[in-house]
Model the fold of this input.
Amino acid sequence: PVAMWDLLHCDPKRCSGRKLARLGLIQELRLGGPRWGGLCLSPQGQATVSPADSAILGGLGAAVIDCSWARVAELDFSKMRSSHPRLLPWLVAANPVNYGKPCKLNCVEALAATFYICGERAVAAAYMAKFSWGPSFLEINRELLELYAGCRDGEEVVKVQNEYLEKARKEQEEKEDRKKEQGLGGYNEGMDLPPS
Done:
């Protein structure tokens, strides 16, 4: 089963969780209702989603909290209880609202990432195929998703994430250093412009 707590923060026309509900791909959970037995993708998670969660996902499912990133601090997590709260590792959003922003995934991206990391690549692709921009999420993040899916547990996922981010930071610094050495600092620097 796949489920969500909908806090009604989102524009209904852009909300991926509501679209999944209209398509019958997700069930809505009642705030303050019974504890969700499966994985719950939540900022309250202590552990990170990993392939070690595949048995929980397969047996008990996954849930998301459909809310605005701008209003996370207002949430009363005691009304959204779950047995296995999880954090997602670093990924880049492809949805139209937060395109290119790290860690600002919407509901369907969070679910697809969880499915992928837990070995359910076809399910991840099927969910993302319901959105015109969906396949680009898997493409943008494929390298990281593959790395995460190859880990043993959440601790290794975090280690792989941090190594990836450190490598990217070093590559960016080296690129900036090369620009400085070549004198390519500003936009107009190095250009032969006409006199003013």
Summary: The first strand starts at residue 2 and ends at 6. Strands lie at 2-6, 27-29, 36-41, 47-48, 62-66, 82-87. The first helix runs from residue 16 to 22. The chain is about 40% helix and 15% strand.
